[in-house]
Amino acid sequence: MVEIENLSFAYRERTVLEGVSASFSGERVLITGKNGSGKTALLLVIAGILPPRLGRVIVNGIDASLEEIHREVGFIFQNPEDQLFAPTVEREVAFALENFSFPPDEMRKRIDLTLRWLCIEHLRNRSPDELSGGEKQLVALASVLAYSPGVLLLDEPEAFLDWEARKRFRRYLDYILRDNCMQILEITLSLCDISQSDDVFFVVNKNIKPLKNPEMLLSSGSVDWMLFRLESEFGGEFPQSFRLKPAVSKVWKGRRLVLLDRVRYRRESGFLLEIDKFELFAGETVGVIGRNGSGKSTLAQIIAAVLKPQSGRVEIAGRCGMLFQFSEMNLFEEDVLSEVSFGPRNVGLPDPEAIARRVLSGVGMGEDYYTRQPVLLSGGEKRKVALASVLALEPDILILDEPTSGLDFDGRYELEQILAKQKGKGVILISHDLDFILRNSERLLLLDDGKVVFYGDTAELCSDTELIERFGLPVPVSARLEAWAFEKGIIDSFGSFDVRKIYNRFYP
């Protein structure tokens, strides 16, 4: 049980929590709220990592200001790189067990069990530095789950996990809850989880209160809100399987911005990325999907000239801007305005500060953010600043690696509006959010273990559930909605994935 008494917390002079009193007794408590509302700060104070300005926190009878709290509480950071430092995955998982003086035999047993449960035994001797973002997330989870804390604090733990890893992780949490061996407090922006739970709290106005209606989180008019409302009312009718003829795909005849021809890139670990042919044309968006560790970010970094392949031809026509998977990699300046104006100033664009102000406004960040330090922002706010710094370059080629990670629903809405305005540019989207990819990509590239297993029209892949499931993908809700609407005669073709059009037929 977690008890909070009159808690206040501030980052330097900026108060983010004030007068918070709450008691969490449920087995799995969900905490949600907008970017920068104080969700992560609340968990960091509960974990005893940050001290409160006023008030106190009691976890299972232990004051969070005492050293004993660190054995009772396990914390998974929003960015897994914040807690990985050991030379190998096995040493990473062993670290806490050693510090808490577990006997050697018990340590080995716990390490083996945890790696097996999360299906990362094959990573045992790998360096965390070599892993993909999703693999790092699983290792961070393993390092905490291995010592079985009394309370597990999770800060968006599924943000970088693929669909299969999410299912494995959920099975592990279900096992924990069935065994009644720990309480879970989880920060989430998942509407699915929030709408199916009765124990959800909303951080707002520097305080916390029970969430009565999930629609409070959504921007009225956003695609997320429309999809949620349609699924809530008609989801029981959506087909689980279907095979439809997609609309005729668009043939791209615009200027070619990217060409990869017989590209091969091998990492020191032995992983090999093989791309026989990939093209990106002006005015189109290509979604890149695949399991954790399949080579998605490696492909993006080759296009952005961060990595150089050992063989093959790479042709880039125009300026390239890339949002990295971990947004901190994009940030280095002392304040937000300097951060976003750095790129346009560096490439010689006129009036870089005016550009910075314009793109910051586009991602929902006003003048009150200009002088704030990027390192003190929330994870979602950092993602917005990093995105703005890339957009400020006015690139011809825009690469976004997990752009929705850490964004609240307003941020996702703003991102989709930004993507709709990238006329004449080539956009590459990398994400495990298949509904987001579906709605915003004309073509898809599916990678598996470094190899291309599908490269073609988005509607072609999503028109046949057998084909989707053959590649180990879940059927996106947007595809099931469109199949239902097509079969009902609400729309006359399949393949546009225009949620707004279907919504307007029911709620004009």
Summarize the structure in words:
With 508 residues, the protein is of the alpha/beta class. It has two domains: 2-217, P-loop containing nucleotide triphosphate hydrolases (Rossmann fold, 3-Layer(aba) Sandwich), CATH 3.40.50; 256-458, P-loop containing nucleotide triphosphate hydrolases (Rossmann fold). Helix content is 35%, strand content 23%. The protein contains 18 helices and 19 strands. The protein has a six-stranded mixed sheet with strand order 6-7-8-3-9-10, sandwiched between helices. The longest helix is centred in the middle third of the chain and has 17 residues, at 163-179. The chain is globular and about 65 Å long. The termini are far apart. The model has no long low-confidence stretch (mean pLDDT 90).
Secondary structure tally, helices: 18
- The total of beta strands comes to 19
Taking the alpha carbons of the first and last residues, their distance comes to 47 Å
**Number of self-contained structural domains:** 2
Strand content: 15-25%
Biggest sheet, strands in spatial order? 6-7-8-3-9-10
Furnish the topology, listing elements before pairings.
Blueprint: E1 2-11, E2 14-24, E3 28-33, H1 39-46, E4 54-59, E5 62-63, H2 69-72, E6 73-76, H3 89-99, H4 104-117, H5 133-145, E7 151-155, H6 163-179, E8 183-187, H7 191-195, E9 200-204, E10 207-210, H8 223-234, E11 256-266, E12 272-281, E13 285-290, H9 296-303, E14 311-316, E15 320-323, H10 336-346, H11 352-362, H12 379-391, E16 397-401, H13 409-420, E17 426-430, H14 434-440, E18 443-448, E19 451-457, H15 458-462, H16 465-470, H17 477-487, H18 499-506
Parallel strand pairs: 3-8, 3-9, 6-7, 7-8, 13-17, 13-18, 15-16, 16-17
Antiparallel strand pairs: 1-2, 1-4, 4-5, 9-10, 11-12, 11-14, 18-19
Helix pairs in contact: 3-4, 3-5, 10-11, 10-12, 11-12
